[in-house]
Amino acid sequence: MASTQKKILQYHVGRLQDRQREVRLASIRELEELGDAEALEPLQRVFDTDVDIEVRRAAQAAGRNIFLKSRGRK
Q1: Which of 20, 24, 36, 57 has the maximal Cβ count within 10 Å?
Q2: For residue 63, how many other CB atoms are within 10 A of its CB?
Q3: Based on C-alpha coordinates, what's the Rg of the chain?
Q4: CA proximity to 56, closest of 46, 66, 71
Q5: CA quadruple 41, 57, 72, 23: dihedral positive or negative?
Q6: CA 61 – CA 67 distance, rounded (Å)
Q7: What pTM value is reported for the model?
Q8: What domains, with CATH codes, occur in the chain?
């Protein structure tokens, strides 16, 4: 992975812990857009632990889409 893309990935993974749900949702969308399988574990943690059901659902959907894309199914 290119250095810049890795930095972007790390930036958005870090924002998954933000207090504001809108920031977490935006980072989930960005991670899904990047489509990097390295985001799967952090998205799983969000799905398992976030207090907001919408954030958990978004993390689940993004993780599923990234997984399918990495397997060539999307």
Answers
A1: 24
A2: 22
A3: 11
A4: 46
A5: negative
A6: 10
A7: 0.91
A8: 3-70 (1.25.10.10)
